[in-house]
Design brief:
Layout: H1 2-31, H2 33-66, E1 68-80, E2 83-93, E3 100-102, E4 105-111, E5 121-125, E6 128-129, E7 133-143, H3 147-159, E8 162-175, E9 182-193, E10 202-208, E11 218-226, E12 230-243, E13 246-258, E14 261-271, H4 273-280, H5 285-288, E15 290-302, E16 305-306, H6 308-314, E17 319-324, H7 325-329
Parallel strand pairs: 1-12
Antiparallel strand pairs: 1-2, 2-7, 3-6, 3-8, 4-5, 4-8, 8-9, 10-11, 11-14, 12-13, 12-15, 13-14, 15-16, 15-17
Helix pairs in contact: 3-6
The protein binds 2-acetamido-2-deoxy-beta-D-glucopyranose (9 copies).
Protein name: Amino acid transporter arg-13
Transmembrane segments: 32-56
Pfam families: DUF3712
């Protein structure tokens, strides 16, 4: 109520003043038209400057932000204790409305699921443009600068069903037709499939040498499904083998190059047969004949050198592999005592 009253009184008092103000303004404009022209020109220059120095970088940044990065494949090859060859096949999609060149830049990769995780790898990204569809394939040796961070990434990659990686760097964009380059941040988040503890690994074609109580006495083919887009050059991998919570010996896979999808690889083991048979006597193994083995990484050797980041991953958690021991030994089940 009091507010509207106040407004009314303002208009009553303001009306005559407004009219004389208007007249004064017209006179002023007639006399000082040149001043208005100068002000208009200044404003135009300011707007143009704002567009070029604020607007264009913002448009450049928003185009970089909107670009979609898709990763088709990652290879980690020639693994050595402190380096590896990294290859990435990827594509970048944009709406294609702005033509621009983007400088090559150094991008760092972070495990985004862990707060403030340090970068685990540094890659050189090539020059690109803002075209609608482009292929970005990278192949370069990478030095392990931060082993702890790279171990942390490998452990997450081995254990988790999926994980999010942040790729980040600073680069420059040059829109077509402009001579200036503008700073932009390139930051992308990519959720990738992890190895999910290689669940579902099966052993087929198993052969046991019952008379060999020590040394290699078990051979077979492991069928390992790699649910990720990564190819990993692991080398010779040795696992400790547990049956019914007891260490029953080592299992080895030589020259393991884990590719996406199904891998069929030879395995060999030296197993404590007494230990395996006593695990077979326990329920439910004696009902089904299947012994659930747990595998824990003990050693990863590639060309005579231990690979600490892969070993950290494979020794961080047990993988479970069910093996039908009764079938291998030709025993009838159930055989519970
Ligand atoms: C990239 O694609 C090429 C050609 O299809 C293929 O040979 C290479 O293994 C791929 N690399 C990765 C990292 O997926
Ligand atoms: C880049 O990777 C794609 C697969 O993502 C492949 O088709 C293409 O052949 C590769 N190009 C080169 C030059 O390796
Ligand atoms: C990621 O993994 C979690 C379980 O760890 C699962 O609940 C979720 O659905 C997965 N997300 C995707 C996109 O696969
Ligand atoms: C089983 O092991 C024994 C003792 O090591 C060996 O003499 C024998 O040749 C092996 N049998 C087979 C089929 O490998
Ligand atoms: C199992 O492998 C580890 C590491 O290679 C080795 O130290 C150990 O002696 C092996 N154990 C058996 C019983 O072969
Ligand atoms: C796997 O083992 C079989 C039989 O021992 C052998 O013929 C074959 O060459 C082996 N494969 C590899 C990749 O080592
Ligand atoms: C094999 O396992 C049995 C019981 O599981 C144990 O008594 C024996 O000492 C083990 N043998 C070796 C060589 O570790
Ligand atoms: C794996 O071990 C075998 C036998 O010791 C060796 O000949 C081979 O070079 C090793 N492979 C790798 C990748 O180190
Ligand atoms: C793996 O399983 C064995 C046997 O159950 C257990 O002693 C060991 O602590 C487990 N290791 C990890 C890292 O979970």
């Amino acid at each position: 109520m009091s507010d509207s009253k106040h407004e009314v009184s303002q208009t009553e008092n303001g009306a005559p003043i407004k009219r004389s103000k208007k007249r004064a303004c017209i006179n002023h404009c007639k006399r000082f038209w040149w001043l208005h022209l100068i002000i208009f020109c200044c404003i135009t220059v300011l707007v143009v400057c704002l567009v070029i120095f604020v607007g264009v970088p913002n448009i450049g940044q928003s185009k970089v932000n909107a670009a979609k990065l898709e990763i088709q494949g990652v290879n980690v090859l020639e693994s050595k204790p402190d380096s590896y060859l990294m290859q990435i096949n990827s594509t970048i999609e944009t709406d294609g409305t702005v033509h621009a060149d983007i400088d090559p830049f150094e991008g760092k990769m972070y495990l985004d699921d862990v707060e403030n995780a340090p970068a685990f790898a540094t890659l050189q990204f090539p020059a690109t443009n803002a075209d609608k569809h482009q292929t970005v394939n990278i192949s370069q040796p990478v030095k392990v600068d931060d082993l702890a961070a790279f171990k942390q990434f490998n452990i997450a990659f081995f254990q988790q069903q999926n994980l999010t990686v942040k790729i980040s760097g600073k680069t420059k964009i040059q829109p077509a037709g402009l001579s200036r380059k503008y700073d932009v941040d390139f930051t992308k988040y990519q959720t990738i499939n992890g190895l999910n503890l290689l669940k579902g690994t099966k052993v087929t074609n198993a052969k046991v040498n019952l008379t060999a109580l020590t040394g290699e006495n078990f051979k077979g083919i492991a069928e390992i499904t790699n649910p990720s887009h990564f190819t990993l050059d692991l080398g010779n991998v040795t696992f400790a083998n547990f049956a019914a919570e007891r260490n029953v010996g080592n299992l080895t896979i030589n020259n393991l190059l884990l590719v996406p999808g199904l891998n069929r690889v030879n395995i060999s083991a030296s197993l404590n047969q007494t230990g395996v048979l006593s695990a077979l006597n326990l329920k439910p193994a004696c009902e089904t004949g299947v012994v659930p083995f747990k595998l824990l990484g003990l050693d990863v050797q590639n060309n005579g050198q231990q690979i600490p980041y892969f070993l950290a991953a494979l020794s961080s958690a047990n993988q479970t592999v069910d093996i039908n021991i009764a079938e291998i030994l030709g025993l009838t089940v159930p055989a519970c005592h």
